[in-house]
Amino acid sequence: MDNSSSGSLGPGGLDLTQIFFKPISNASPPSLTKSHNKISVIGAGNVGMAIAQTILTQDLTDELVIVDNKPDKLRGEMLDLQHAAAFLPRVKINSSVEYSVTAGSDLCIVTAGARQIADESRLNLLQRNLALFQGIIPVLASYSPETILIIVSNPVDVLTYIAWKLSGFPSNRIIGSGTNLDSSRFRFLLADHLQVNAQDVQACIVGEHGDSSVALWSSISVGGVPVLSFLEKQQIAYEKETLENIHKKVIDSAYEVINLKGYTSWAIGYSVASLARSIIRDQRKIHPVSVLATGFYGIGDDVEVFLSLPAQLGRGGVLGVTNVHMNQEEEERFRDSAKTILEVQTQLGI
């Protein structure tokens, strides 16, 4: 029995993988897989530890490494996790202030950075995090030259671009957490509005992880039924203002959580763990994450900017980007989102 599968539709049919996904530029082939998985989390703050804890409980790795510059807190976090060994799958947990402990990582997740304070935009964090990345990314790349980098620190799109430049990696091995969580919040709010289960809602936010993000209203479906086209066919009126208010709630969600509890942690923990699972387990799932958007939706072939698009993730990192439909207004907003990021990048000097 042949257990292999392909993207063809029927004998001699259309190769859907070549049509449905468009490869990103400057990609390299995936490295050979191995039986032992190692994930390193850089930063033992609230976000880093939420990600580490979720990775452990979901049995995603054989070895988990945590790196931070605060030795006492770092050791305390490591011991606290190790003491839960009887309740967890067998995992080697290690920590250090030295980056040499990350050597040979399959996946490096960078959460280190200045914490976003109340009412501070993500873009304002850039200057405080740029110098930090210059001391982190090249070292990670030297110890794990075949690793895949997931950047979580904010502003995530610009810092993912910085990580790409500093690492020298091909673009498919640099991924920003992007709008993966924004899209989850979007699905939750839509499900709440429609009184359905969020898992039955397909909806996507693209562009910047921030105030200029773009809600793809044309992509919303519930149980496989495209919502807006269904309403139009049934001649049911809907208020665009209602849709925009839902998108605004998505944008404001992080600020609301930060105002209430001081930081965000659990949702981003689950979000990044889902990305790790898709990569480590080669699940080839589609996530809206920050990727090199050169040549997509009117972004010039000479423009280097990272923005969120629905991307297929697997052992090789970004395997392709879904050719999702955008109407004219959505494309214009997407390009405006790119301009927002590029304005900041021009000040970096790298």
Backbone CA Rg: 20 Å
Uncertain residue segments: 1-6
Strand order, sheet with most strands? 4-3-2-5-6-7
Into which percent range does the helicity of residues fall?
25-40%
How many distinct beta strands?
A: 15
Counting DSSP H or I runs of 4 or more residues, the number of helices is: 10
What percentage of amino acids are in beta strands? Answer: 15-25%
Name the assembly state. Answer: single chain
Instruction: Please state the average pLDDT score.
Output: 88
Please render the helix and strand layout as text:
Blueprint: H1 16-20, E1 21-22, E2 38-42, H2 46-57, E3 63-67, H3 71-82, E4 92-96, E5 107-110, H4 126-143, E6 148-151, H5 156-167, E7 174-176, H6 180-194, E8 201-202, E9 205-206, E10 214-215, E11 221-222, E12 225-226, H7 227-233, H8 240-261, H9 266-280, E13 285-292, E14 306-314, E15 317-322, H10 328-345
Parallel strand pairs: 2-3, 2-5, 3-4, 5-6, 6-7
Antiparallel strand pairs: 1-15, 8-11, 9-10, 11-12, 13-14, 14-15
Helix pairs in contact: 2-9, 4-5, 6-8
General description of the model:
This protein is of the alpha/beta class. The chain is 39% helix and 17% strand. The chain has ten helices and 15 strands. Strands 4-3-2-5-6-7 form a six-stranded parallel beta sheet, sandwiched between helices. Helix 3 links the parallel strand 3 (63-67) and strand 4 (92-96). Helix 4 packs parallel to helix 5. The protein is globular. The N and C termini lie far apart (53 Å). Mean pLDDT is 88; it is low at 1-6.
